[in-house]
Amino acid sequence: MESTKTIQLKILNPDFDLVETMQKYTKGMNYTSNIVFEHGRTIPAMKLQKMVYPYLRENIGLKSQVSCNIPRQVAGTYKTIVELAKIGMSYWQKVMYSPTSMTLSYKRDYTITENSVSLTTFSHGRKTYQIQNYEYALPFFKEPWKFEASKVVKHKDGDYYFHLTVSQELPDKKMEDASTFMGVDVGINYLAVASTTDKKCKFFAGGDIKNRRNVYKNMRARLQSKGTLSAKRVLERLAGKEKRLMKDVNHCISKAIVKFAVENSVSVIGLEDLAGIRARTNNKLRKKQKYLHNSWAFYQLQQFIEYKAKNAGIITEYVNPEYTSQTCCRCNHISKNNRNGLKFRCKACGFELNADLNGARNIEHRTRDYRYILESQGCLSTTHTDNMI
Question: Is the peptide bond prior to 321 cis by the omega test (within 30 degrees of 0)?
Fold first, then answer.
């Protein structure tokens, strides 16, 4: 099992050569993107490379490895668009890139030390740039961590950063060997509720974040009604601030969830498979609910939980989310009348519990059931989330 991590290191002395290289890289990305879009469907990376490589090398003048990186990256982007389109979350569209990001291969395009990074530039070959390192990042420059393909990124404040990606191999964990499970229900009133096999639980409140985002929503409405250029600039800054807020919150919550799992010797964390959930549930929401539901970063939180769990040697498993909020975790009776806001009361057996905790227990049950399905079948089923209720 491979664990990866990305570390942001500020480039202290960016120059024209670096800017020019990123501009040429972007030109190559947009040329390649246009080829795929006009083709009308995705193109495999190797086939796309053969189509665009001569132009990238001869007409734009890009280096050999960069001319190989670009078609792989563009092919991956369009593949993601097609996958999202299948669940109603995107549509076929031309992707246009801006000169704010450039992917580089280790040794071929860059080498790095604790204090500097050497990059292949367009006009002057390899150039060394000083980087601002941090104490927390220094361990990642030593074994067992390995350097992977990384990026130069221009942040919105105008500064350039090297997003160093590192990886290490961790011992493989098998679902069949798992003994303790934890279900995590993500939501809005509570950002997350976790429940383990032995019924230990923890709530991660989201009331303050919800209130702060309502403030942003009201400010956004006032600015949109003005429609001036200055109002639009403030809207952009507000959107960035809100996005950074949610990212920071999700990092903190995911870290606390994984810490709780480690403290309770959890082998597997169960999460709901939320792919396409927005499209399926939007028509059931009142207009006032749609903003919070559609803009809440559920998927990002799950991704943070997954990679932090992997670094802790914990498996993550996604289960079918159907009826987790309507099913009684004691008797398995399903009814939409079982839940009333934050309160769950089973119409069949009378069992009462916090609704989000009930959901977390159902997720834990389904994750644990999947482990026994593996044990009985002796193989891994790729369709288990579709068959479970």
Answer: no
H or E, element range at 177: none
Any idea what DSSP says for residue 354? E
pLDDT digits (tens, 9 = 90+) for 347-389: 999 999 999 999 999 999 999 998 888 777 665 444 444 433 3
Distance, CA of 123 to CA of 139 (rounded, Å): 34
Distance between CA atoms of residues 49 and 80, nearest Å: 18
| Helix axis angle, 207-226 to 229-263, nearest 10° | 170
In what helix (H) or strand (E) does residue 343 lie, and over which residues does it extend?
Answer: strand 343-345
22-49 pLDDT, tens digit each: 999 999 999 999 999 999 999 999 999 9
Length of the chain: 389
Write the single-letter amino acid at 334. I
Residue 56 burial class via C-beta count within 10 angstroms: exposed 0-12, middle 13-18, buried 19 and up: buried
Measured CA to CA in angstroms, residue 107 lies from 11, 26, 119, 147, 345 at distances of 18, 21, 9, 9, 60
The pTM of the whole model exceeds 0.85: no
CB atoms within 10 A of CB 135: 6
Question: Residue 375, Cβ neighbours under 10 Å: how many?
Answer: 11
Radius of gyration of the chain (CA): 24
Domain boundaries, the chain: 2-169, 175-387
User: Which helix H or strand E contains 77, and what residues bound it?
Assistant: helix 64-86
